[in-house]
Amino acid sequence: MNTGEGIVPLLKPPGMSSSDGVVFVRRLFEQKRVGHLGTLDPGAAGVLPVCVGRAVRLFDYLVDKDKTYRFELILGTATDTQDSFGKIVEEGTKEVQASAVEAALGAFLGEIVQIAPAFSALKSNGKKLYDLALQGKEVPEKQRPVTISRLHLLRQTGEGRFLMEMTCSRGTYVRTVCHDLGHALGTCGHMGALLRTRSGPFSLEHSFTMEELTALKEQGSLEKCLVCCEDALLGYAPLVLKADRLVPTKNGLPTDVRAGEGLVRLYCGKEFMGLGQVTEGRVQLKVHLYE
């Protein structure tokens, strides 16, 4: 993998769209093949992994990884966007204690069905829901299953305000969790600040701000921010073939192996090849990432 390819863990600031983050990275690396691994709302901050070069081939295999968020639950008001940027549409006066919030969290764990907020990028008949909402048109209800594996109350930050942490599957709306939690507690609620602290294998601690990335380019050290494809796939088990299978593997030919079925991090000798697919005792290169 050359120095202009890999995954950039961008620390997206609030006020920037995910597509703007992609444009920034594209200009920084002067690469055309660039794409992010999961939208982060413009008002939110946090980890936005951006694939550069051949790394974009890994989109389908990295975008589905769980994500972790820290966010503020604000009880007593609900908004039309379910976050602090919308108009207040409901108010409640019930005082809720931290113990009640903790007791309500269990009902949101595991696989649940969410109704997507009206102000979302999901589409109905080719039109985005938020476009319909902005036009004052009726927004069809969109339900989809999501999985929440962790949901914790970290601390109470003020009257009716609680700092939370959640790990969830792709496509989970954190603001909808806040909205539904409010109703489950006998009042109403919305989401305040939102920070994504992890996206699959990419963490906040190892992410780079736009200023840091710009400084690295000025120093001629931009490659320091890149996570190579091999490291991004460490969650997949390695499978090493003999070195003489290099050419057949590159030509798309399968190799007999003793390995469980599924995706693997594939090597021929010491050379990293990419993602392999094991099916019925044979492995074949599925995503090639070799030089």
The helix content is: 10-25%
Element order, helices and strands? EHEEHEEEHEEEHEEHEEHHEHEEEE
CATH class of the largest domain: Alpha Beta
Subunit arrangement of the protein: single chain
Q: Say which CATH homologous superfamily of the largest domain is assigned.
A: Pseudouridine synthase
Overall spatial form? globular
Query: If helices are DSSP runs of H or I spanning 4 or more residues, what is the number of helices?
Result: 8
Largest sheet: 9 strands, mixed
Task: Give a short overview.
The chain has 291 residues and is of the alpha+beta class. 20% of the residues lie in helices and 38% in strands. It folds into three domains: 6-65 and 201-231, 2-Layer Sandwich (Pseudouridine synthase); 67-199, Pseudouridine synthase, CATH 3.30.2350.10; 236-288, Archaeosine Trna-guanine Transglycosylase, Chain: A, domain 4, CATH 2.30.130.
